[in-house]
Specification:
about 140 residues, Alpha-Beta Plaits, four-stranded antiparallel β-sheet, 3 helices
Amino acid sequence: MSESRQYELVYIVAPETGEQELTDLHAQIEAIVARFEGRIDNTEQWGRRKLAYEIGRHREGIYVLDLMTGPGDMIKELDRRLKVIDQVIRHMVVRVDEEMRIAERRRAGREAAVAARRVARGLPAEATAETGETASQPAEGSHE
């Protein structure tokens, strides 16, 4: 079961963690991902934020989001390693590839429905910005 899937990893680091320690932690995560032949597609540092509830003695934390692609074994190893790193006060991994596929199918369905309505009205299936047509305007040359 070495199928690659897409995951979001969100982790909260203790607020007293320095910039260098945060960089080292991210390097550890990158090393684990590389070892399992995965890749980190995107990293967002959300910065220091107040926690919804106190975790241990912490009321704030530094949030980091990683969007990654790789096998399930990679996620198991990341989970195991993040549990023992003292700087990480919480982490969560969510598989997002299925949700993205569902959202893409819904978007494509909506676009097809809009195109079908336009054709039913006698308009071209795709409106262009240059013509300035909208769904409420009749096409040039039509007699409504």
